[in-house]
Every structure is written in structure tokens, then in C-alpha cells.
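> call design_seq(struct)
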């Protein structure tokens, strides 16, 4: 691996097939890099407990691996059909010597949001870090293509579930706890064929600031990470093979990011290293501007 950020990871993804929802890492031809062989922990989260939604693959998987290597026990939420991906994530967490709780289900179910927190607390002994990461992505060619049920589902998964999870987590979180949220560069650039997804991500960015203002007096920090194009199973869902092949080449660094390249930011925001950070949105976009 080179240190040159332009070439340190793949710059194209030839012959990558499209996938139906929800997308599976096990079916991707070019496997993402979650830091399995590169992330080295420093004990920054020793003794902590984290709940990560969408922790079976992609960014959530990279965060789960990093948190485990930093000393945290991890619960991951995912759709039941993603079990194979979740089992692989669990294996990496346990290889790091930490406990991993698998919690299948659809976070659009409000009762499940409460259950995820309750199971984490009862099985792992508490909750110090909530990573609101799971998201549904919809695309459109025109306004007429936007399905009302899909639109409502996207807001249920991407916005409402985050609020419900934060609400359920609050009684268990002590000063020094943190909430880390995944938004997107789409919150600012709002690509014309992703307007519902972009709208949810804009709401998430505002939610980050609002929750920070609300919870900072309790000693709980709330921050967000805004990824650009990252090589995860969400990409083959939304894009055709021709688009996938050149994913990220329009960024200043000329390539897509890998999930493992984002994990350090999630560690920073959850640990004492980020103790004076709250209400921040950190762009990790390959140089694409957000502000």
C-alpha cells in the first residue's frame, strides 16, 4: 500500500454488478477494505459499550472493528437478511477479544429501536456510544419516479429511527457518553437523482446540531461524519455497473473512499480525544467541498 492518497486504494471497480436492496458485502466482486488488516487500536475506548446501526457491513462494519480494537464491546443492528455479513463482522470483533451482540431487525419499527437499546444494556452491561449509521438510499430520474412509500421508508430509517434510538439511549448514557451520526456530502451537494436521500441527510445534519445543543448540558457529545462516495454495499444498489466502475473519480483525490478510511473519525468522536467536539460535522469526501 502506498501513502499517496490518490492511489492508496482502488481507483475503479470494473465488472461490479448491481444489487437489489438491501445490498450484501458477500456479493460484491471488489471487496471493501474495513481496516481488517490495517487498523491498530490504542485502547481509546477501553471498557466502553457501543451500539452501531448498520454494523453488518460498510462503514458500520469498519467502525465495529475499530471500536473493538480500541477496547469496546459492540452491539450491531442490521436487517435479518444481512445475517451472513453480520456474522463476519462479529468474527472480527471477537478476534479483537471483545463481545459482539447481533441484533437483527428493521429500525423503521419504533418498538425495535427501544429493544435495540434494552438488549444492548442488558446483555453488554450498559451503553456509552450510540452510532446512528444505518440508512436507506433511494434514487430518481424525475419527480414522477419518487414512490411515496419509498420516501416515507427513507425518512423512517434515516431520520425518525435516529431520534427514537437517541431517545431510548438517553436514560442509560452518562456524562462522557457520545452519539455519532452518519450524514453525507449529499446533505450539501444534493445530486438531482438522489433528492429524497439528500433531504434525509440534510435533516440528519440539522439533527446533529439540535441534539448537541440539547445534550451538551448533560455532558453528552453529539457529532456527525459526512462521507463522500465510499465503496460499500449501498453503491451497487443505487448505481448501474457503468457508473460503479468510475465511482469517486470526480473527487479531487480521484477515487472512492474505503470504509476503513472513515473509522478513525468515528473513534475520535467517541473517545476522549474528541472531548471538546460537539455539534460538528466532519467531511470525509476525498476533497469534495461541503461548506
Amino acid at each position: 500500500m502506498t501513502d499517496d492518497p490518490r492511489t492508496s486504494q482502488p481507483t475503479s471497480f470494473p465488472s461490479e454488478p448491481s444489487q437489489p436492496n438491501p445490498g450484501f458485502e458477500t456479493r460484491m466482486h471488489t471487496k471493501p477494505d474495513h481496516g481488517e488488516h490495517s487498523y491498530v487500536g490504542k485502547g481509546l475506548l477501553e471498557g466502553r459499550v457501543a451500539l452501531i446501526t448498520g454494523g453488518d457491513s460498510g462503514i458500520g462494519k469498519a467502525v465495529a472493528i475499530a471500536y473493538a480494537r480500541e477496547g469496546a464491546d459492540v452491539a450491531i443492528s442490521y436487517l435479518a437478511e444481512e445475517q451472513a455479513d453480520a456474522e463476519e463482522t462479529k468474527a472480527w470483533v471477537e478476534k479483537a477479544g471483545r463481545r459482539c451482540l447481533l441484533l437483527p431487525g428493521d429500525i423503521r419499527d419504533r418498538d425495535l429501536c427501544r429493544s435495540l437499546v434494552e438488549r444492548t444494556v442488558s446483555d453488554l452491561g450498559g451503553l456509552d456510544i450510540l452510532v446512528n449509521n444505518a440508512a436507506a438510499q433511494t434514487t430518481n430520474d424525475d419527480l414522477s419516479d419518487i414512490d411515496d412509500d419509498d420516501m416515507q421508508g427513507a425518512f423512517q430509517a434515516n431520520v425518525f429511527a435516529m431520534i427514537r434510538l437517541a431517545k431510548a439511549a438517553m436514560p442509560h448514557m452518562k456524562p462522557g457518553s457520545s452519539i455519532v451520526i452518519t450524514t453525507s456530502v449529499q446533505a450539501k451537494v444534493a445530486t438531482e437523482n438522489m433528492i429524497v436521500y439528500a433531504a434525509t441527510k440534510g435533516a440528519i445534519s440539522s439533527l446533529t446540531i439540535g441534539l448537541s445543543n440539547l445534550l451538551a448540558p448533560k455532558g453528552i457529545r453529539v457529532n456527525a461524519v459526512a462521507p463522500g462516495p465510499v465503496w460499500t454495499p449501498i453503491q451497487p444498489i443505487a448505481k448501474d455497473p457503468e457508473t460503479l466502475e468510475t465511482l469517486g473519480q470526480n473527487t479531487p483525490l480521484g477515487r472512492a473512499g474505503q470504509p476503513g478510511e472513515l473509522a478513525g473519525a468515528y473513534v475520535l468522536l467517541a473517545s476522549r480525544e474528541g472531548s471538546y467536539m460537539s455539534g460538528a460535522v466532519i467531511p470525509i469526501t476525498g476533497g469534495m467541498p461541503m461548506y
